[in-house]
């Protein structure tokens, strides 16, 4: 079978390079279940070579003036914007996201993040502090580069800080990997020196080798909780820095006074955007019992606005799941919700959306599904599904909703819909989550530091705090008195 794209190799030391393992996997178009390209898998020697390239580049790159690094990031952001639609088309084929999403969000927000950090770093954002201890003594601090860092990411998206001072090797695993090489090529075209940004492909064994490699200073991981715990344990056991963005089962609390239209729109975005494949999804929707009828009626009106179909059709806003394995997992959860949890199926259920055309029937589609009359002990309520499955839970008092919302080991995101901003701030302050919203859901701009609480992660990304995860502090005390205070003096 002729594939849509040429084989994807590895990318390190400034150019594409063939993997020496002789092994490949195929990336699949989720909308049609047809293969797109062969992806070469890195061997341990390939990983060693990529890390060695980073080691060689590190001394020079870490001493490059901040303004020079900023210019490269600005150029990379400009190239991303110029090639927005081209990259978005590939992303749509590779990920199954509708083009209406990839063309307006994915590449655009990536460029936004690069520009934010280019401005932040170029403007002295990583300058240290100076403190006068006494007339003849000063303390100053410096943010020092970590070294070669590894990112284990599900879609090849490196954290925004990666090109600043540290070297970067990324492992896109075996889900949507096509654009990782594109990003590497854009960085090179923008002027990033060879070895600063490298791409290696593979699955768990490649990630494990990266995590345990003695030359890796830090590991950043995005994925499910169980895997993140293993990665964090391995990395921290070797005294490596870690950043973990893990799963969530996030609560969305609709207060009795909420604007119903806005609350329903928020719940829809929190469950069906990106076909529910967003770690911050608000899949536990807490609704006052008094609003049950009105809330469900409005949801049923709006569920028809979720439009599956050809991914490049401007009317399509709902795509397939990312893989056949993930489709099986989500369908199993929906079946469990119907047959075992016995939740009330308000919309969706088993099967494919009715508006999926015949030529896409082989794709990994599921129906946008809403369960109502859910209880806290149901499996569909307790476990992360990572698909378009909403669970509605009814409550009698806001304090009850708050207590139930926090009754989980996860704490990635949470949100509140209310017209009473005093109440909103009070509830947000008590919700045990690292990312929170009031009267909206899902937006996380470059300026906003985001990260999970409890088992949902370690550290933050984006914002001023996010850059701190990629540097280490050095403090220096300078004494200018001309004498050293000592207890070892002649009596």
Automatic annotation (TrEMBL):
User: Which keywords, in A-to-Z order, does the entry hold?
Assistant: Metal-binding, NAD, Oxidoreductase
| Origin: domain of life | Eukaryota
The residue ranges of the Aldehyde dehydrogenase domain are 20-475
Q: E.C. number, please?
A: 1.2.1.3
Protein biosynthesis among keywords: no
List, in alphabetical order, the Gene Ontology terms for molecular function in this entry: aldehyde dehydrogenase (NAD+) activity; metal ion binding
> Catalytic site residues?
245
For this protein, the record's InterPro entries field holds: Ald_DH/histidinol_DH, Ald_DH_C, Ald_DH_CS_CYS, Ald_DH_CS_GLU, Ald_DH_N, Aldehyde_DH_dom
Record carries keyword Chloroplast: no
Q: Which Pfam families match?
A: Aldedh (PF00171)
| Reactions it catalyzes | an aldehyde + NAD(+) + H2O = a carboxylate + NADH + 2 H(+)
Q: Which family does it belong to?
A: Belongs to the aldehyde dehydrogenase family.
What PANTHER family would the database entry show? Answer: ALDEHYDE DEHYDROGENASE-RELATED (PTHR11699)
Report what the protein is called.
Answer: aldehyde dehydrogenase (NAD(+))
Source organism per entry reads: Penicillium cosmopolitanum
The organism's taxonomy opens as:
Eukaryota, Fungi, Dikarya, Ascomycota, Pezizomycotina
